[in-house]
From TrEMBL:
Region described as Disordered: spans on this chain: 130-165
Gene3D superfamilies according to UniProt: alpha/beta hydrolase, Immunoglobulins
UniProt organism field: Gonium pectorale (Green alga)
Protein name: Carbohydrate binding module family 25 domain-containing protein
SUPFAM superfamilies, A to Z: alpha/beta-Hydrolases (SSF53474)
Record GO terms (molecular function): starch binding
InterPro entries in UniProt: AB_hydrolase_fold (IPR029058), CBM25 (IPR005085), Esterase-like (IPR000801), Ig-like_fold (IPR013783), Mycobacterial_A85_antigen (IPR050583)
Pfam families referenced in this protein's UniProt entry, alphabetically: CBM53 (PF16760), Esterase (PF00756)
Record-annotated Carbohydrate binding module family domain positions: 699-789
Domain of life the protein comes from: Eukaryota
PANTHER family, per the entry: ENTEROCHELIN ESTERASE-RELATED (PTHR48098), FERRI-BACILLIBACTIN ESTERASE BESA (PTHR48098:SF6)
């Protein structure tokens, strides 16, 4: 016996067992080789179909069916189907809905039942993996399937492979629909699940906050008019998207379950439909009786799959079930057979005439409950005459229409007597002129969803009770619609202002440069409806209490009068009258009530305001502020703008199909341009140049784009030229003019371009800029250098040419470290020419140190993969004996401590070993020089300028390898980059040029003295995207603490550089909690100082990973 809302769930109600039914099926003969099965049902049907004329009539004797009891917690299977159902499934031939009497097939059904199949619930591997990370919801009812029960008991998750003859759940295709996606999932044979996920849906969000879900019958009719018998669909996705986009409903999932075709009535009805007293002679021979088996499959197979694979809710109040016609009858049966599983039901045009009105007259009136918390019941006034040319007299046909409406009112009266008050728990619609068609049901669906889903707001608003605002969907996506919800009571500035005067002011990207606008805030439709309903419930409860008190007073007065007459003390009836047991129609006989499950005071909840808007396709971040009136209204305008910093929200730019399907080999060899040139230009707004494709490919054409404003000495020169060559200027050298482009221009952004062709044997491109009259920008003598990748077919591009082998993993050595595991990953050497190999020997990465946390499981990562921190100078990260100054960052120990104490979610650390003596080449955008005043004379000859090439290798080669082997995330919100000293400069460079890859950046003691402060000038010129969060740390003795003499002037200079960097980042939008700048008194430029600050840095940067 399981518990629901703190009470024991009542036993499943079972109807009186009917006598056996006989279902006749005309069966066509099989084609050659069509029935090769040894199954007795298959053989019997095949033999019967081979009779004279090629048509046979099979009659299956169907035993009475009821919902099988839930299996024990340790079991992983459901009860096998009875012989008749197995024979129907095994026949694999067209079946019509006939019920006749004919002898001869009972033995066949018995033979089929003698060999039952074991059907196991199944889900994709990634879906089963998700169950290990999703926390149970408050009020959740454990699944009654074997898998759900096992999970509830702590047993291993069920197998991801189905043992059913119908095969496992398998995704057939996925298509965009109404801003979301429609997945077609094979369930049994050709029978599908049609699962629509809303705009902005993500599996990781579902693991954090499970989505409400509506299960609907007749899945073929829900989304695609071509699949519907009537030629019309419910347009369920459009109705849901409209409700979500208007703020009427929170994001939710629809699971459409295909009907079984010609045996549809058998699945949806508890007994054959009959003829409704002759009005439905066409249904005389249709079968029924399989609804219990169908509902068992919904409960034990479909629901567990949807919960695992799509993260839909397991809480009854967050689950709905519905259908129309026979599917509406099935919904009523689910309310009786599966009490407490669903909290709401959609009952459209239920065929209550079926079975001589037995359901309406016998089963529903005698059902003891419990009853669902919400029901939407609807019927049209021309259900019968509106869809057929009747042979009956017009008066008789109209009478049947009226009878159907009468049935609906009788059902509504019955449900209201059981506690489903109209307007609160039940909404009844009788639509004039509406017919028995999908178009009528589609017309009512928006109202039905708005009524049934209003309580879906409760858990969402309860979790956000202290928030100033939130969005639906939770994460903004570029190019999609969204709704902002604003909690006026939480605004320190606007809490007491008139709600109808409030506005949202917003813009996207740096300086609000894209899509700036202003929208009025209005009461959010969904939360407002919830509050109104809560107020109505309160008023109703008070009225009921007043009636009870009046009755109690009357009873007390009557008892007192009787006692006085009998000279006896009065009986204390008042208290008894007020505490009398609830009637069958009372609140105690209702299940799936969110008010009880959530403990949420809807009437006393905050007043939420809302504003819908569209996120531009090129957006990567949103800035917003709230005000109480037009800025030019003449009166003083009050602003809630985050204390002058404005509010910042990251916008997710979804990966394209090409990116999602891009494997490691393609990433390392092809490196194609993803997205259009304008999108790349926005992404690279802080760079001086970029190319399309973003990584050059040997033997292919390309375009070089140069930001004239970022050049040295050529920013306003109209005569801009580029001199370039390949393979260290050894081949293909030429000079070309750059021309202005039509790309977006802004402050410090002016893109010029030229086309070029990369030779087939090229390994790098070097270029300099000039005006042809003596002015040069040659990267301070280092030239600008870009790597060139070989095409998939190798150098030369011909099909016969050998394919270049990408870099891979040579070996992995694993050992325990800091309660987790350290993996030393050796990379293979780069293939190519002898010159390429010589260069790679001194500059390219050879070893990774990958630390995985306690409990790490690459086969079952959290949705979206493990969060990951990418650190540079890998030798200095983990062990003191390996660090070059004898002290390490102790990254593994710090991460392990924060994870095991529950302060941070489990994450992976990947440390890339530096190239030793060539470290400065890889970590700096140009040679360091000696610093202002020459205080770093030791660095005069150190190389630089290879940082972009290093970042390219890291992003294009190394990261895909690690993502594939260790299941780490590629979502920028869950990827961090960090380093100190020269690698701190690399971290700031990544913040400006790769924020689309790294959402968090850790920059410790960055050597901003390089090139006499040139990097700070680059930061000032940056006008592009920045990461979500950045930690910048330094000490007050960066120079003196590591030398045998003090230089207070140099210490002050280095501190001033970091302060200036923080001020630049703040001015460019890194404020309002996105930037933390920490100056540690007395700290120097060494690993021990960075180790001391690491705990606080991780807390600041990675705490948001809980929300990802």
């Amino acid at each position: 016996m399981r518990l629901i809302s703190g009470r024991a769930a009542p036993a499943v109600h079972r109807s009186r067992a009917p006598g056996p039914l006989r279902v006749a099926m005309p069966v066509a003969p099989a084609a050659a080789g069509e029935h090769g099965s040894k199954d007795p049902a298959h053989q019997g049907i095949a033999e019967a179909a081979s009779g004279p004329g090629g048509i046979a009539t099979l009659v299956l004797e169907l035993p009475p069916e009821v919902i099988p009891p839930p299996p024990a917690a340790a079991e992983a299977t459901v009860a096998p189907p009875d012989g008749a159902a197995a024979a129907l499934a095994a026949a694999d031939v067209p079946v019509v809905n006939n019920v006749v009497t004919a002898p001869g097939i009972s033995a066949l059904a018995a033979a089929a039942a003698a060999e039952p199949e074991t059907v196991a619930s199944a889900a994709p591997a990634e879906a089963a993996a998700a169950t290990t990370t999703a926390a149970p919801e408050p009020g959740a009812v454990p699944s009654t399937s074997g898998g759900g029960a096992a999970a509830a008991a702590g047993a291993p998750a069920p197998s991801t492979t189905s043992t059913s003859a119908d095969g496992p759940f398998a995704l057939v295709r996925s298509v965009p629909l109404a801003g979301g996606r429609l997945d077609i999932v094979r369930w049994r044979g050709e029978r599908m699940l049609r699962i629509w996920t809303p705009p902005g849906y993500s599996r990781s969000d579902a693991a954090r906050e499970p989505y409400p879900v509506m299960y609907l019958n007749d899945g073929q009719n829900l989304f695609d008019a071509k699949l519907s018998l009537s030629g019309h669909a419910w347009h369920a996705a459009e109705a849901a998207a409209e409700g979500i986009g208007s703020g009427q409903l929170p994001p939710f999932v629809i699971v459409g379950i295909d009907h079984s075709g010609a045996t549809r009535s058998y699945d949806y009805l508890p007994y054959p439909p009959g003829t409704a007293g002759g009005a439905r002679l066409d249904a005389e021979q249709w079968p029924g009786g399989g609804v219990d088996t169908y509902l068992a499959a919904v409960r034990d197979e479909i629901m567990p799959y949807a919960e695992r694979a799509y993260g839909v809710s397991t809480v009854p109040s967050m689950r709905g079930f519905g259908g129309s016609s026979f599917g509406g009858v099935c919904a009523l049966m689910a309310a009786m057979r599966l009490p407490g599983v669903f909290g709401s039901f959609l009952v459209e045009s239920p065929s209550l005439w079926f079975g001589d009105e037995k359901l309406l007259r016998e089963e529903l009136p005698t059902h003891p409950g419990p009853w669902p918390a919400r029901v939407f019941l609807a019927m049209g006034t021309k259900e019968y005459t509106g869809i057929r040319k009747t042979k009956e007299k017009e008066a008789d046909a109209a009478a049947f229409d009226a009878k159907l409406v009468e049935y609906t009112h009788e059902l509504a009266d019955l449900l209201e007597a059981r506690g489903l008050t109209r307007g609160l728990r039940m909404q009844v619609e009788v639509e004039k002129g509406a017919t028995h068609t999908e178009s009528a049901w589609a017309g009512r669906l928006p109202r039905a969803l708005a009524f049934l889903g209003v309580h879906w707001w409760r858990p969402l608003l309860r979790r956000r009770a202290d928030a100033l605002f939130f969005f639906a969907p939770r994460k903004l996506h570029a190019g999609q619609n969204a709704v902002l919800f604003f909690n006026q009571a939480k605004s320190a500035v606007l809490a007491d202002r008139p709600a109808d005067s409030l506005h949202m002011n917003f813009g996207f990207n740096i300086d609000w440069s894209v899509g700036a606008g202003r929208a009025a805030l209005a009461p959010a439709p969904g939360p407002a409806a919830m509050r109104r309903e809560a107020a109505m419930r309160t008023a109703q409860a008070r009225a009921e209490q007043a009636v009870l008190q009046a009755k109690a007073s009357q009873a007390t007065a009557a008892a007192a009068a009787a006692a006085a007459a009998a000279a006896a003390p009065p009986a204390p009836l008042a208290e008894a009258a007020l505490t009398q047991a609830a009637t069958p129609g009372g609140k105690d006989n209702i299940v799936g009530d969110p008010e009880e499950e959530e403990g949420f005071d809807a009437a006393g909840s905050a007043i939420w305001l809302a504003a819908p808007f569209t996120v531009p396709a090129e957006a990567y971040e949103m800035h917003l502020a709230f005000s109480d009136g037009p800025p030019h209204s003449g009166s003083q305008v009050l602003w809630d703008n985050n204390a002058g910093s404005n509010f910042y929200v990251r916008v997710k730019m979804d990966m394209t199909a090409a990116q999602k399907s891009h494997n490691v080999e393609q990433a390392m060899q092809e490196a194609p341009a993803w997205g259009d040139v304008q999108a790349i230009a926005h992404k690279r707004g802080g760079s001086m140049y970029f190319t399309t494709p973003e990584v050059l490919v040997a033997g292919a054409p390309a375009v070089l784009y140069v930001n004239r404003c970022r050049t040295r000495g050529l920013a306003s020169n109209p005569n801009l030229r580029v001199l370039f060559g390949f393979n260290s200027w050894s081949t293909g050298s030429q000079e070309m003019h750059l021309r202005p482009t039509s790309l977006w221009r802004g402050q410090d952004i002016d893109w010029w371009s030229t086309t070029l062709t990369v030779p087939p044997d090229a390994s790098d491109l070097s270029f300099v800029l000039t005006d042809g009259h003596g002015i040069w920008d040659n990267n301070a003598g280092n030239n600008y250098v870009l790597p060139v990748k070989q095409s998939r077919s190798g150098a030369g591009g011909g099909d016969a040419a050998p394919k270049i082998k990408p870099r891979g993993v040579k070996s992995v050595e694993s050992m325990p470290h800091a309660a987790g595991t350290m993996h030393i990953v050796e990379l293979t050497k780069r293939q190519g020419s002898e010159a390429d190999r010589r260069t790679a020997k001194w500059t390219e990465e050879k070893r990774l140190r990958v630390w995985t946390p306690p409990g790490f499981d690459a086969a079952n990562p959290p949705p979206g993969g493990y969060p990951v921190l990418w650190m540079q100078d890998g030798q200095n990260m983990f062990e003191d004996w390996l660090a070059h100054q004898g002290v390490s960052w102790r990254v593994g120990y710090t991460a392990s401590d924060l994870i095991t104490r529950g302060e941070l979610p489990p994450f992976v650390v990947v440390a890339v070993d530096s190239a030793g003596a060539m470290r400065s080449l890889n970590y700096l955008p140009y040679p360091p020089g000696t610093g202002a005043g020459g205080f770093r004379g030791d660095a005069e000859r150190w190389p630089g300028g290879g940082l972009e090439a290093y970042m390219g290798r890291l992003v294009e080669e190394i990261m895909p390898l690690v993502q594939e082997r260790f299941s780490v995330s590629s979502d920028p919100a869950k990827v961090a980059f960090g380093g100190g000293s020269f690698a701190g400069v690399a971290a700031l460079y990544a913040a400006m040029h790769y924020p689309h890859v790294f959402g968090c950046v850790l920059a410790e003691s960055p050597s901003l003295w390089i090139a006499e402060g040139r990097f700070l000038q680059d930061m000032r010129c940056h006008r592009g995207m920045l990461p979500e969060r950045l930690f910048l740390g330094c000490g007050t003795r960066e120079y003196s603490a590591t030398r045998d003499h003090d230089r207070d002037d140099v210490d002050g200079l280095l501190l001033n550089y970091c302060q200036e960097a923080a001020a630049i980042l703040d001015s460019q939008g890194m404020r309002g909690g996105r930037l933390r700048f920490l100056v540690e008194e007395g700290a120097g430029h060494h690993e021990l100082a960075w180790q001391w600050r690491l705990t606080g840095a991780m807390r600041f940067l990675f705490n948001a990973w809980w929300d990802e």
